[in-house]
Design a protein that fits this description.
- The complex is a heterodimer of chains A (222) and B (183).
- Chain A has 222 residues and is of the alpha+beta class.
- Chain A has four helices and eight strands.
- The longest helix of chain A is centred in the first third of the chain and has 40 residues.
- The radius of gyration of chain A is 24 Å and the shape is extended.
- Classes of the chains: A alpha+beta (222), B mainly alpha (183).
């Protein structure tokens, strides 16, 4: 048997499996888009639950720290003092986005694009050092699609060993995070509110400096 | 910053024309493309229970950016690139495996049936290839895409895809002890 024959047969196996899945689920949900709506709703609910769990854990952690501090102060503690240091549980649902740079591109998780983010975690799945630039849109002259086209051109220039075009007008890089191979990093510093795109950067074979490779976003930080 | 020190310029200079797409609704796009995207996720992730989630994640990303993605010439290529990247992501695979275990524990059966042993072995060997080769092979055979089409989906040069397909096919033939066609 040749490779092509085997491969086409294996592809047919996948097609058949998907057809079976389609028939099975169609009996449950005749309107195909229902599956997507259910998935979307479940993701939103899970994110809310996750945010509440994080907020609760933070509040409990703060309470434990405060309580142990009060105990350390021993007999000298004055009743009523505790009220002054009672932590306030976070009153917001923290939205943390994840951007993953792999050998093939930059992928964002579902939190990105939801409307706003409170923080960002960047993940490097490659075997080389990479960077992530938070580029803030400072004017309406530049659209996200135009920035995407710019990154595409920069990537091709990088692959060809050509010089950089330079960052287009309309965006400013506010934060850069460098991440070691296989590691991740949380961008913890204060991110000024605004609309951003995330430029994923890496060194190319013929260019040693970090150059745009892919784009993720747009995201809004509040 | 050194990266951008060569001066700023407008992206309008030499930029490609903006993609113009039909005004297809997201729902129509989803219904048409979902089966093929699940198939790609299944082949590249090997997870019966995770493949549908990976495909849904990709469509969720498309849905959120539909104002932009829907105007592309081929939004289907965009969503395939997303799912191809998600499916080979180590992090996502671990999430999918975790969900699969949870489903087993709850007695739920994945909607996707198991592949025959022969087909499962083939895709397992594909997944053992370097990511780019695996993606190129899966797109080429599953969707019968040409080199140019695979390059468009993966956002890379045709020459690169040609080499990835060549290397991938050679590795597959060797590992599966098959005769390589003269393609």
């Amino acid at each position: 048997m040749t490779l092509d024959t085997r491969a086409r047969r294996a592809a047919q196996g996948i097609h058949r499996a998907v057809e079976v899945m389609e028939m099975t689920t169609f009996t449950k949900e005749p309107r195909k888009v229902e599956r997507f709506e259910r998935f979307r709703d479940r993701k939103q609910r899970n994110r809310r639950i996750g945010a509440i769990a994080v907020a609760t854990a933070l509040a409990i952690g703060a309470l434990v720290v405060v309580s142990s501090g009060a105990l350390d102060r021993g007999q000298g503690a004055i009743p009523g003092d505790r009220d002054e240091v009672q932590p306030t549980p976070p009153s917001f649902e923290a939205q943390i986005g994840i951007v993953t740079q792999s050998e093939t591109g930059c992928v964002t998780d579902s939190a990105i694009g939801e409307g706003h983010l409170d923080g960002l975690t960047v993940v490097n799945e490659t075997d080389r050092r990479v960077s992530f630039d938070l580029a803030k849109f400072v004017s309406t002259d530049l659209s996200y699609a135009e920035l995407e086209a710019y990154v595409d051109r920069e990537r091709r220039r990088g692959e060809a060993g050509r010089s950089s075009l330079g960052l287009p007008k309309g965006v400013e890089v506010t934060v850069r995070a460098e991440v070691q191979p296989g590691a991740s990093s949380a961008i913890a510093e204060q991110i000024p509110p605004g609309r951003y795109a995330i430029l994923c950067l890496r060194a190319f074979d013929q260019v040693s400096s970090m150059r745009p490779f892919a784009l993720a976003g747009p995201v809004v930080f509040e | 910053m050194a990266l951008y020190s060569e001066g700023s310029r407008s992206v309008a200079e030499g930029s490609e024309p903006a993609a113009v797409g039909s005004a297809e609704t997201f729902e129509d796009f989803y219904v048409r493309e979902f089966p093929a995207v699940v198939g790609l996720a299944y082949a590249l992730s090997g997870s019966r229970s995770g493949a549908e989630d990976l495909a849904q994640e990709a469509f969720l990303a498309a849905h959120r950016g539909w104002d932009r993605v829907g105007k592309y010439d081929q939004p289907g290529a965009w969503v395939r690139r997303v799912v191809a990247n998600l499916s080979v992501s180590v992090f996502r695979r671990r999430v999918a495996e975790g969900k699969a275990l949870a489903q087993v524990a709850l007695g739920q059966t994945p909607a996707l049936p198991e592949l025959s042993a022969e087909d499962a072995e083939f895709w397992q060997v594909v997944r053992s290839l370097p990511r780019r080769q695996a993606q190129a092979i899966a797109l080429h055979y599953l969707e019968d895409l040409s080199v140019a089409e695979v390059a468009r989906v993966l956002g890379t040069a045709e020459g690169t895809v040609k080499k990835q397909l060549h290397d991938g096919r050679r590795a597959l033939a060797r590992r599966l002890e098959l005769e390589e066609d003269d393609a």
